[in-house]
Amino acid sequence: MKIRHMIVIGLGLGLPGLSSAQLMKHGPNHILGAPPPARALAAAIAPEAPWDPSPAPFLLNGEPIAVDRDRVVTRALIIDFPTPFGVGAGHTVRIDGVVDSAPAAAGGLYKLGAGHMVLAGRNTYRGNSALLQGSLALLDDHALGAPSNALDVNVGTRLEFAEGVSIGQTLTFRPVDLAAELPAHWWTPVPPPAEPLAVQWAVERGEATHVGDLFGHASLVKQGAGTLRLAGWGAAYTGDMRVREGGLRIDGVFGGRVLIEPGAVLSGTGLAGSIEAHGILAPGAAQRTGTLMAAHELRLMPGSATRIRIGANGEADRLWSLGTASVDGALHVQARAGAWDEESRWTIVQADGGLAAGRFASASSDLAYFDPVLEYGSDRIVLTLRRNAARLETCAENGAAHAAARAIEGGIPALAERIVRQDCERAADLLAAFAHSGAASWRGAMLEDSRHVREAALDHAGSGRAWIRQWMVAAERDPRTGADGAIRGDARDVAGVLAGLDRTVSRGWHLGVFAGVQHVDYGSLGHARAPGGLAVRDASLHLGLGAAHRLGDGHRLSLGAAHAWHRGAGRRWTIDGDGPLRSTQHARSLQAWAEWRIDEAPAGRWTFAPLARLAWVRLDSRGYVETGGPAALRVQGAVDQRLFAHAALRAHRAWPVPHGLAVLRAALGWDALTGSPDLRSTQSFRDDPAARTFEANGQPLARHAVRLDLSVDAPLAPGVRAGIGYTGQYRAGGRQHGVLLSVGMAL
């Protein structure tokens, strides 16, 4: 005899009764025992009831408690002697107060009557309880009192576990002859339920656990949409469990027969006496694979569904019968993360007593590029995979990914092999990472960041000073879903400095010249080095000219233009564990602008004035070729032109300080884009001999945004002013926050 068979027999599975030691501790009358002795009645019945409000505990002395309406007990209860609660049909008694035992007393609660009892507190009483009629709900891990307590459950009753509870007390399910075991004045007959010879065990939602021992032979019916987890020792239970609703998870030992009805689920890594599945069988734990065992027989019936999870490392869920097994119904294979091939083998069904009969009626998997193949032996079923005829674009989720899949399938076998070894979800992620260069999103960032240069020049236009402006801005754009699927969000840190000279050239006219640099660190949101991530470090040089003309009455018209040269060092990640694809990106930009504003003279009160600005920006991006692995792209150059408008209401106030006036400024404005906000890039795979091109969307430009600008500047010495400010832009799905520093010296 095999050692594992001897172990199971030694554990008590299949034994007709209990051992003498078990009978002494958990015998058939271990809870109720002999009927309690009659207690002397007081001359007058105290009017107080357990649900009466009182700070004092209520003593349960063995006299029956009749509940003829819904009641809530919030005070403490002290058990001096086992006490029955008779709850009338349609009524509930809820015990929220702590139930404890009197000194030297040991006794529990007897639930009688067709109504419902709820034990909600962290009870500490010593003694066994019984569910004899109606229903009982346990809402706390300690609802049944001390860990050594037990609960006897009669047939025709309903036991409910609340979501999240873990009950450790022993449960015994057996028919109880109330007439023989209880005093006559304790109980009255109740109408029989639909299944009078079974116990309904219910978990309405979530998961609830029993970790104690199980005894008895009464039939059980699992009810409720939740999952009942059995993680204790139930080898001595010899009845049947029908899983009618929700789920049953066996992670311990259950000695009875489990029958899964259609729509219900059996899962776990434990051992049952025998299993008959008409519903869903899902061996294993919630987050890991595992083996579900049957001591005597495993039967998968027509119409059943079996779920098996497999790992590329050789792990798999398994069904193991120490006796015989017969299979039928549908098999669905769920692949965990990993790289798949046709060489791996997984034993998914094992029957030490032999495969009695049958075959799975169908077999499917969530691997798009492999089909499951089953090999039937005399005592086991082995799963392998075989490459099917599915095209790479089967898992593509958008146009860019479809085009990339066709290009890969046509000429880049190294990438094709990477894709087919994934499940469909990860294959789709890879195709999206291969298809998106990120070039369009990067171009959009350069267009948006052009505003820092022109705004620095405009703020000093007509000042008649030599000036320096520095800015540090953090910008972020949220992920979006477009026609080409998900577009990753991005973040960038922008830092720049611009120096200029503004001089009066004639009455009312000023001319200016300026030059500066801007550095941008750009990266995908989340983890830039994850598949599909992009990081670029851009340095740009800016040169420009400006003019300002004072029209009278505080009106000022400013004009300007600037040219910039960009050089970006890019890195793009496509596959976990692979190094980045590298590129050097060059671009030139030209921008021109015009602004009208009213400059009120500083005063000791708040003054308000409007501002309107229009800017045209053209960006010429050169094509580039990535270096690195087979996913490298050849990205075509592009020309983007956009018109940006800005309107604001400005306010300022001045106050005297040494050497002049300090000025506080605030502006609330509106940014608008004229033209399409969408940007696209055109690319092909570097190693594709046919150079098939495809397009991908980037992050769209902000069509509208709210602006808030705050600043204060003050004289440091005669003719020298310094300022500090804040600039913020708020758009749908994006935001910018920046700090501005400036110094100016009068000429």
Structure in words:
- The structure is a single chain.
- It contains eight helices and 55 strands.
- With about 750 residues, it is mostly beta strands.
- The strands form seven sheets. The chain has an 18-stranded mixed sheet that branches. The chain has a twelve-stranded antiparallel barrel with strand order 38-41-42-43-44-45-46-49-50-53-54-55.
- The chain starts with a helix and ends with a strand.
Runs with pLDDT <50, length 5+? 1-31, 38-46
Report the principal-axis shape.
elongated
What class do helices, strands and sheet pairing give? Answer: mainly beta
Per DSSP E runs of 2 or more residues, the count of β-strands stands at 55
> Radius of gyration over alpha carbons?
39 Å
Helix proportion: under 10%
Spatial gap, N to C terminus: 105 Å
Largest β-sheet summary = 18 strands, mixed
Strand content: over 45%
Number of helices: 8
**Please, what is the average pLDDT?**
90
